[in-house]
Amino acid sequence: MSWSPKSWRNRPAAQMPDYPDPEALGRVEARLAAAPPLTKVADIMHLRAQLARVASGRAFLIQGGDCAESFAEFGSDKVRTTFNLLLKMGAILRAGGYGEVVHLARIAGQFAKPRSSPSETIDGVTLPSYRGDAVNGPAFDEASRIPDPRRLLDAHRQAQVTIDLLKAYAAAAYADLPEINRDVGSNEPARPVSLFTSHEALLLNYEQALTRFDEASERWWALSGHMIWIGDRTRQLDGAHVEFASGIANPIGLKCGPNLEPDALLRLIDRLDPDNRPGRLVLIGRFGAANVGDRLPELMRVTLREGRAAIWSIDPMHGNTRSLGGFKTRLVQDIMAEVSAFFEVAAAENVHPGGVHLEMTGADVTECLGGSVKMSEEDLPRRYLTLCDPRLNRTQALDVASTIARLLRQRRALTRSDAA
Ligand code: PEP
Ligand code: CO
């Protein structure tokens, strides 16, 4: 059957909410379909061009932001601190001598979460799991947990405001860059800043309503963000999410977890990037520090052997979650270890280590342990604010950026001595 923005509806769709009132959902979809798009085709093409430079080994991608955006936590300060953090991380890499950095935020659409369990039990009471503010509410009561399609409209509105704020900050950052660069010991001249948006394309009713045909390119584009990705739990080859992503022209991310076999990866690449176009596909490994050395080499080997243009990036967050004293947390040392292993495997397999994908916030939270701030288990309750996964705070994210800068410098020295 041929692709259309709604052809995903003929496929099994994992992790999607069960809306009790399909007519209410239909009304919301109609309103979204009539709303102006959140992004422009020209900007998505600009991101594609930048990612093509990552694919050819000339640039590095930093993707990061909240695990889940929330309606309650929203504010212009929140957007500004995330924006500034991404910019500063980029400046750290550039000060380390790494010229080109692509800034991609997990923002303006990251409102829905796949869950390991469909329900949650507290003190003998079982309710449907919280699936992100675009689906239901986090409070543990029956009414909050019923999926409400009107939340899609609130998510869309917040995404629109976020994008407008990001545009304003990008214009201001042009002026602020000399100061950011000075902070990290660089004297490079200010250049215009491009910051792109991304989210997991989990809620396909929302995605379909914001997908538009562009006459000039004669292609369909998901105008809900610049890049969208497919999660590790929704990447079934014949499933709805892969079907939807296969037909749109945006850059696509694909999470690759420890259960993904090399053959299955190649079949997914055939579906998602049949024309092997640089900048189209970003493979985002998320194995855990303990598994990355086992799982990643054979996956990288097949993509290299088959001459695939797809970028390899690493998400060192989702394979490193653990539970401590009733809190979900992550250790900065595990995160650093997975990033370092990613660089080692890439060097051994002769693949460009193209990027990193982080859950982080510009705010001063206490959700992950360790780092130069030496966050300890006793600190966790102090400012544990995430509704979903634990995020690096600002200092911890800058620690990770410094580690990446060092790894990129080492890699460059290695490449130079190979060439000499
Ligand atoms: C996420 O990125 O928040 C996420 C749920 O990741 P994954 O699909 O890799 O588990
Ligand atoms: Co997460």
UniProtKB/TrEMBL annotation:
Belongs to the class-II DAHP synthase family. Residues 1-21 are annotated as: Disordered. Its cofactor is Mn(2+); Co(2+); Cd(2+). One of its GO terms (molecular function) is 3-deoxy-7-phosphoheptulonate synthase activity. Mn(2+) binds at C67, H318, E359, D389. It comes from the Bacteria. The keyword Mitochondrion does not apply. Its EC number is 2.5.1.54. GO terms for biological process: aromatic amino acid family biosynthetic process. Binds 1 divalent cation per subunit. The enzyme is active with manganese, cobalt or cadmium ions. It is an enzyme of class 2 (transferase). This is Phospho-2-dehydro-3-deoxyheptonate aldolase.
